[in-house]
Amino acid sequence: MNLKKKLSILTALAVFQAFAVIPANAQAADQSDSTPVNTAKVKSVEVVKKEQTIAESEVKDQSGTQTSDNDTTEETNPESTDSSGTDVAPVDPAAPTESEDAEGTEEDVPAPTPVEVEQPSTSGQSGTVGGDLTLYMNSNKMVQDGKSYLAGQPMAVKNGVSYVAIRALVDRVGYDVKYDNTTKETIIISGEDELRFKTNSKIYTVNGEARTMKGAAYQQKNTFMVPLTSITQALNITYTVNQSAKTVVLKLSTKPVASFTVPKEVFAGDNVTYTTKYSSPKGLDIVDERWTGRQDSFDQPGTYTVTYAVQDSSGQWSDPYSLTIQVQKPNLPPVAMFTTDKEEYKMGEKITYIDQSTDDENAIETTEWDNNALAFFVPGPKTITITVTDKHGLSDSYSKIINITGETLYTLSDFNQLFTPVGGKFTFNGGEVPAMEKVPYTYYDEQSILIRSNSPETVNSEGIVYKESSIGQTRFMIHHVNNTGKNVKMYVVATNNNMYPATLEQQNMGFAGPSPFATVAGKLSIDRWFKSMQEGTGKLDVVLQPGESKLVLTELSALPMKKGQVISLYSDVFSDYRLDYNIIMIEENKDPMEVWSTLPVLDRDGVHNRGTYPNATRVITYDQEVGATPSRLPLGDNASDPNLVGTDPMAYTDASNAGNFGVLYKITLNNVAPRTLISFNPRGGKYSGVALVNGQVVQISEGKSLSAPNEQSVLYRTGSYGESVTILFSAAPGSNLPVNLLFTPLPAEK
Q: DSSP string of 706-738?
């Protein structure tokens, strides 16, 4: 075979391949129209690896219309008004309507009028957009500017979704069409917008963002069909429907579109930033713009109207776009000011600071102090500064000098015990604590099952981190770190394997995360758990039918966990029948109900604790006096406060709840001496959490974590009379045990 013959065959194959891939819309038309025929001649087609431009031109043929051989040809009624004047109820075009054709019968198509047929051209240019485009239901007829055209396939319904031939439609609308051989995607380009479709897929992209259509795109006799609403919604094309005439009219505009924005708040005298946005439906360049009422700065407050329009390269102007701008009077910065109750103080004398800062809008958002110690212990002048910032970012500072004399009122130790605020911390000699007398308390345990899911704390792969069954009162403590290398979610799946319906009563909820900091997530989960108890929130009932599985404790899966992030959950539940629980970690996009039963059980990490522990609420009641002399009440030490003993059902072994994390302590001290400081001192390492003291949530501590062993945080002070004090406490995940409650007599006030 000579070279010339080989090239001819290759050229023919290339043409055949191109038209097999690219949707073809050519259909014959009646030749009775007197419009001249423009025959599209294809000389050659280059099949490229990346993108191949395809287009159409208006040509005439002699064949009539054809009907679709889709599965169904039900009529649809997109939201609209009937252009013939008949009342038509708005209906989504993707949903079938109740009409004569609702059973799938095909609507008779009127005899065709002279039409122009859509065929591929070699020009590489898309059709020129005209006026509104009328589509006929169950027909491939299209009308625009008084001329009729035929699409490659009729507008039809398949599985309840309205489909149109993509090339015929977009050429009439005036967009570019391409085909990407690499990704096998058909591409629509409208100005700066790009839509990408794949055969047999419901997913398409708009400017790179994936969206879901109501039906999958498909090929019908080499014609690429897509849901009508996928194009109209993505490109903001409005339409109306005439059900009696069985037409859908797309409202097309050739005008460019202009808009602009200004800052949310505009103040007189400030420079105004105008952010413009414009586009051309035909993809033409914007060559000119026109403003009315624009000012770079408005001198006076008031109401102003600014209008903007643009012109494209064809000379067409957009409709004017107007904004009404409320110009406010100039914002004034806040005024920082404070005073003190005195001008001169002794060393160790408490200083009272009175903030007197003001703002014209009463909108001070932040207040920062520098050197505002509650007392000073070195004599001399001291400069204190306050800085306030309003919501607009303007700030002001004020400084004042006070004098500290050489006379001492309180030592540092006495002052801290007397005046450190509740929730605040101070340093002391923690080496003295072990020598303090232990409070000889006794306790009993309330019936409650603790499910502690904390090992592996750092999870390296998808799987079941804990599984257990329980009935009655149950507490969940879940604390894990994502180290799988992908975004994941955690779930609790509850299954009712009983013969009767079971009810799970969620009594409270404390959840925190995802967070990069274990101590932060742990502290917040305990904080929210106690607040849920206080306020009665977090309650929920879930009913599971026999054999049914459901997701419970759904706060756990509200947000995906990125790599290195931590979640922490505390919750009490009650079930009237035994339920099986699976706590799982899986990739964020997976359906937990589909995959949980196939997941592997993960091994514990050998460092952190997991287990099922009975008697997880420990009640301590002490009637003897405390606080008259220094004393301590140890918790989580496995001596005065023994660890709970339970099992690890996944490892088939006994377990000891080190630190007693997950245990709720209900401590009642019925005889706390007058003028007693009750404080919290960590002994095992850093600690950050909360306690509920006489019904009030108290931070341990405000701001930064407590360090062991030389810091303590103030929980409570009794007054001039003895008191009964109740403390609810549970160790915060991410912190360290053991800890001590300290009882210290307060120094005399001067």
A: B-TTTEEEEEEE--SS-EEEEEEE-PPTTS---
Q: Which two tokens stand for residue 624?
A: 């003897």
| pTM for this prediction | 0.63
- Strand order of the β-sheet with 203-206 is 51-54, 176-180, 185-190, 193-197, 203-206, 209-212
Residues 227 and 94: their CA atoms lie apart, in Å, by 7
388-393 own/partner pairs: CB under 8 Å, 24+ apart: 388/334, 388/335, 388/336, 388/357, 388/359, 388/364, 389/334, 389/364, 389/365, 390/331, 390/333, 390/334, 390/359, 390/361, 390/363, 390/364, 390/365, 391/361, 391/363, 391/365, 392/265, 392/331, 392/363
Which of 443, 494, 488, 434 shows the shortest CA–CA distance to 470? 494
Beta-bridge partner residues of 340? 353
The DSSP bridge partners found for residue 134 are 143, 249
Q: Chain centroid to CA 9: how far?
A: 56
- What 3-state DSSP class applies to 350? coil
Give, in degrees to the nearest 5, the angle at Cα 530 between 526 and 534: 165
Cα distances (Å, whole numbers) of residue 129 to 126, 172, 245, 311, 455 = 9, 6, 24, 17, 64
Could you tell me the mean pLDDT of each successive run of 10 residues in the chain, 750 residues long?
43 38 37 34 32 33 38 38 34 36 34 37 40 86 87 86 84 80 88 86 91 90 88 80 87 84 92 94 88 95 96 91 94 94 96 96 95 97 97 94 97 97 96 96 94 96 97 97 96 98 97 95 96 94 97 96 97 98 96 95 93 96 97 96 96 94 97 98 96 96 91 97 97 95 96
- Tell me the pairing of strands 631-635 and 510-515: unpaired
Instruction: Return the pLDDT at 130.
Output: 56
With beta carbons less than 8 A apart as the criterion, state whether 515 and 525 touch.
no
In eight-state DSSP terms, residue 561 is B
Residue 618 in tokens:
């420990």
Q: How many helices (H) and strands (E) does the chain have?
A: 6, 53
Which 3 state secondary structure label does DSSP give 132? coil
Q: How many Cα atoms sit within 13 Å of 535 on the Cβ side?
A: 11
- Which of 471, 477, 535, 533 is CA-nearest to residue 498? 471
Tokens of 589: 């996009």
- Quick one: pLDDT at residue 146? 85
**Cβ-based neighbours of 642, under 8 Å, separated by 6 or more:** none
Q: 236 is written with which tokens?
A: 């903001």
CA distance 660 to 729: 11
C-alpha 334/C-alpha 337 separation (Å) is 10
- φ, ψ dihedrals at 413, nearest 5°: -65, -45
> Whose CA is closest to 199, among 351, 612, 263, 213?
213
CA triple 185-189-190, angle to 5 deg: 150
Phi and psi at residue 527, in whole multiples of 5°? -55, -50
What pLDDT is stored for residue 251 in this prediction?
79
Cβ contact 744:628 at 8 Å: no
pLDDT at position 222: 85
Q: Is 23 helix (H, G, I), strand (E, B) or coil?
A: coil
Are the C-beta atoms of 149 and 118 separated by less than 8 Å?
yes
What are the beta bridge partners of residue 555?
A: none
Compute the distance between CA of residue 560 and CA of residue 192 in angstroms, rounded to an integer: 32
pLDDT of residue 672: 98
